[in-house]
From TrEMBL:
Protein name: Transposase
Highest taxon of the lineage: Bacteria
Organism the protein comes from: Imbroritus primus
Length: 88
């Protein structure tokens, strides 16, 4: 997936600018984005604050870490069961 030229905090700032009453076409032209991009961002980030985005990223990182830990333990558990079944 292509990396965005804008950070999430910049996207939130662009959306807030659009909420102030400035026409969407003007906001898009100012920031060099298409109206489709603006509305995609709006559907994804509407009503979200920058602090909430940071909190979400931290949760996603923690979740990924826990998934890795679970996968390692499940693999180790399967290996132990395999060894115990061979000894029987």
């Amino acid at each position: 997936m292509k990396k965005s030229r804008f950070t999430e905090s910049q996207i939130v700032a662009v959306l807030k600018e659009g909420e102030t009453g400035i026409p969407v076409a003007e906001v898009c032209r100012k920031h060099g984005i298409s109206s489709a991009t603006y509305y995609q961002w709006k559907s994804k980030y509407s009503g979200v604050q920058v602090s909430e985005l940071q909190w979400l990223r931290e949760l996603e990182a923690e979740n990924a870490k826990l998934k890795r830990m679970y996968a390692d333990l499940a693999l180790e558990n399967a290996a132990i069961k395999d060894v115990l079944n061979r000894k029987s």
